# Entry
Amino acid sequence: MPGSRLSLAIAAALLVAPVGAEQATISPGATVKQIHELMITPASNALFAVESEAPRDDVGWNHVRDSALLLGESAKLLMTRGRAKDAGDWMTLARALLGSARSAATAAAKRNVDALASVNGEIVATCEGCHETYRDNGRSMSR
# Structure
């Protein structure tokens, strides 16, 4: 029996190996700025818009939820090799954005405007922390 477990483990490793090797060779196509312009800004704007006018139907709420999911995926892209600026604050802020995006998706699925507004505050704080540190040389986004 132990021999068959070893064979299964080796077979599983061989099946997984090409995926790992393939992932190691993938290089980023879009820059951080492009991800921001194409994904982060439109997705976050869709979330922020709910505070002034909540969607009235399933289509609208689905768009908000999908925007939150897209924001989360963009946070993951910011954490990839070739994009991450460092393993410290950059990763902490990207993980915070991912967590907030997941909370926003949950709030949108529940059509909870108050919860979404609260999460929007977290998103703004995370974005401002990143911009001040990595883009604006300590200058606040609000200035």
